[in-house]
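hey so i finally got around to running the thing on that chain from the lab meeting. sorry it took forever, my laptop kept dying and i had to restart like 3 times. anyway pasting the input first so we r on the same page abt which one it is
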Amino acid sequence: MEKLQREYNDYEEIWKAEKAAVQGSQVVKEEIEKVRAEMAELQRKGQFDKLAELQYGKLPELEERLKAAEANMDKADQDKPRLLRTQVGAEEIAEVVSRATGIPVSKMMQGEREKLLQMEDYLHKRVVGQGEAVRLVSDAIRRSRAGLSDPSRPYGSFLFLGPTGVGKTELTKALANFLFDSEDHMIRIDMSEFMEKHSVSRLIGAPPGYVGYEEGGVLTEAVH
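ok and heres what got predicted. didnt touch it at all, straight out
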């Protein structure tokens, strides 16, 4: 506990020093802006003697102070990582978006090309075996994302055959999670309930003029 307290105190001192440096740099920037505004005002009034004093005296001095302060901050960055950041980068933006959307930061930071190249590895984390099925599905998705498929058509249409427990549904769930970051973006329909010809209306909705036309079907409502 005592060791942790010492480390905390050390980091606090570093943070305070960095904060003071940033604030000092900001103060100099504000002074430079004020001087430039004053110079513009003097130029409009035609007071060129005072303008020259600021332009060739005070302004260069402030710019040198700012340059020295920024050089010290850059040197500190090279020596060790800073605790206090003054610029927003990709990681910070991804973190904020992740909190709002629930999408993991790693997914947002990962490039599209890298993600697609590792698609089989991702799917195999959940689907054991079925190498050919995983490969064919991955190839179809990559072709679509690369623009080699018709953009007006679906990514792919797949028919998985096999007994219970071989991974048909699990592969679909893994694919939905890979593409849309959630299994909730998958629609599952038990087709054993639609074996009769007349039951198709329950799937896509009744045609115009028939009872239930405005209600929609199981599939169309789910997609909607």
